[in-house]
Each structure stands twice: as C-alpha cells, then as structure tokens.
Amino acid sequence: MTQPYPANASEEQLLTGCLAQERAAQFQLYQRYKAAMFACALRILHDRDLAHDALQEAFVKVFRQLATFRQEATLGAWIRTIVVRQALQLLRQESQMEVYDPLRHAEPLVAWHDSLTGEALDKAIGELPAGYRTVFCLIEVEGYTHREVAELLGISEGTSKSQLYRAKQQLQVKLYHLYP
Question: For 128, which DSSP code?
Fold first, then answer.
C-alpha cells in the first residue's frame, strides 16, 4: 500500500511518484493544480461543464505525457499549456475570428472606473463572443503573445490583434453602461 503524499511534497517528489504511476502522487499533483487550471479553462470556455471536460482531458494528457516534461519551464506552466490547448480544442468548432484591418482597428483606450470589481469584470469578459473572449483571456490574462495565440488558434497574428481590439472595445462599452 502506498503512503499518501503530503500537501507540501516537492514537485520533484510528485514527478517521481507520478512517473512511477503512484496514484497518491497523481492525486496530489491534481489537487495542487486543479483550481488554477480550471479557472484558466473557464476563462476561455465560459462554460463550467466544458471547463470540467477540458480539465479532465488535460490531466489525462498530463499523466500520459509526463515523461516528456523537460523541466525547461515550471511544471505549472507546462500543465497550463496543456489545459489551454485542450480548452481551445473544445472551443474551435464555435469560434469565428474576424480578419484584422489596421485602418479600422486603432488600439482602444480602456478606462476603468474606480469602483469596478473583479466580479463585474469577469462577468463582462464572460459576455464577450467566444473568439473575442478567448483571445482577450490568452493575451491579457494568461500572458501569451499575439504570435503564440495565432499558433494556438491557427489564425494570423492580425486576426489575433483584431479579436483583442474588438474585445477591448466591447468591454469598454459594457463597463461604461455598468459604471457611467
């Protein structure tokens, strides 16, 4: 019988245990990252059921591909990449991306009201169309570049810029109506 892994086990201990197919290590690794990874998937998908599906499938991939983890980034960053790709795979059929036109899309100035809450901002982001929301979350929340987003979504960098521009534009309008 395997001993349970303590919550403060090091990543190296968890990796060793997971590679040895120890269920307690796998459970502890999942417990350590599930909340942050679910939040990441939910920001992209804006659907709790789909986010749960993405999380589950992503962790199956994590455990299958753990031997390929080269430790060039943190384990959390590596898992996040898998979660993002899985969420995007679920979203791909629904997303429609607009082509970027630099003449029509100057970078919008987003002015935030002093009493804006995180909850209100999350709600406004969640109301964006899927393509806008996805690009906005990947760039502004997750920290990806337009080039990385373009590669992940199979779109041009210009389309990524257009989606971000439109997302910011719509957020500005939504937040203006909430906080005139």
Answer: S
Distance of CA 5 to the CA centre of its chain: 28
In sequence order, which ranges of the chain are alpha helices (DSSP H)? 11-19, 23-45, 48-65, 75-91, 118-126, 130-136, 146-153, 157-178
- Pick from 142, 134, 156, 146: which is nearest to 107 by CA? 146
Query: What does residue 136 show for φ and ψ, rounded to 5 degrees?
Result: -60, -50
Query: What pLDDT is stored for residue 178 in this prediction?
Result: 67
CB 165 within 8 A of CB 108: yes
Q: b vs e for 136-171, b when ≥16 Cβ sit within 10 Å of the residue's Cβ?
A: bbbbbebebebebbbebbebeebbbbbbbbbbbebb
pLDDT one-digit tens code per residue, 117-134? 777 778 888 888 888 888
Quote the DSSP letter at residue 108.
Answer: P
Q: In this structure, are residues 144 and 153 in contact, taking their beta carbons and an 8 Å threshold?
A: no
CB atoms under 10 Å from CB of 44, counted, come to: 26
